[in-house]
Design brief:
Length: 273
């Protein structure tokens, strides 16, 4: 009977110890081994207490932010995509991000290339006054194909390239002069020796300048002078010279001198060798 009582007390104590162990290991607190013994207590959250995040959701969130910081950067504002490189190691010369490709100065996307304005594909580049060259009045007079000893006619093709008429003065001006043949051109070029009439001399220099431009010479050095001259000659002819004011005569002589310097290569692209 006594043995049975002792055994009963022993079993009861063992049961109490087991229940105590379950409570201790089931309580919240540090658990470095990640083991859970017994059920977790129910947790009720409020608006001020964040809900616990499940292990699966936490792992997914971590994966979504993995990778280098560079990979997470925004590409907003990158307007230019880098195209494949050419044989010189430069990007496409027709690339708005790189219009100045030294490997392809003949860029169809940018004929007025600031890196190579004297483009071999466009010898008379409108951006460059140094392309082409000029000849004097005497050269064009001797290349009109008229008279003994004259060279081949180079004037007629240039008149044709201008639409069949070279205007000295604004087109259709009341006193503008039309040059439509090599013979007319030679006659006007010969008048440059009439020193008593400044307009005749201006006609000759203007015609020579226009022949040079039609022949491929850059005109940046004289474009403004030509525009002013054309406007004046549309309303004033050679017969008006003596009646001009001294100021107008001075302007005519100044325009003539600028065009003379251009034709002789002192300004502009230079004289042809």
């Amino acid at each position: 009977m006594r043995k049975k009582a002792v055994l009963s007390v022993t079993v009861t104590m063992m049961l109490m110890f087991s229940m105590a162990a379950v409570y201790v290991f089931s309580s919240p607190g540090p658990n470095p081994e990640g083991l859970v013994v017994g059920p977790l207590p129910n947790i009720t959250t409020t608006d001020d207490t964040p809900s616990p995040v499940s292990e699966e959701k936490a792992i997914n969130n971590f994966d979504s932010y993995s990778g280098d910081a560079e990979d997470q950067g925004s590409t907003e504002g990158d307007d230019c995509e880098v195209p494949p490189e050419d044989e010189c190691g430069n990007s496409d010369p027709c690339d708005p991000c790189n219009p100045c490709d030294p490997c392809n100065p003949c860029d169809p996307c940018n004929p007025c290339d600031p890196c190579n304005p004297c483009d071999p594909c466009n010898p008379c580049d409108p951006c460059d006054d140094e392309c082409g060259c000029t000849y004097t009045i005497g050269y064009w007079k001797n290349h009109a194909g008229i008279g003994h000893g004259n060279q081949a006619d180079l004037v007629t093709p240039l008149i044709a390239s201008a639409g069949g008429v070279i205007w000295l003065g604004d087109k259709d001006g009341t006193k503008s002069v039309q040059v439509s043949t090599a013979a007319e051109a030679k006659n006007i070029l010969d008048r440059q020796g009439v020193s008593s009439n400044g307009i005749n001399r201006l006609y000759a220099q203007l015609l020579a300048a226009k022949l040079n431009i039609l022949n491929g010479a850059g005109d940046n050095a004289v474009d403004e002078t030509i525009a002013a001259t054309e406007a004046f000659l549309a309303e004033h002819g050679s017969a008006d010279w003596d009646g001009l004011s001294s100021e107008d005569q001075q302007k005519v002589n100044e325009w003539k001198d600028v065009l003379d310097n251009y034709n002789n290569g002192l300004i502009g692209p230079g004289h042809c060798d």
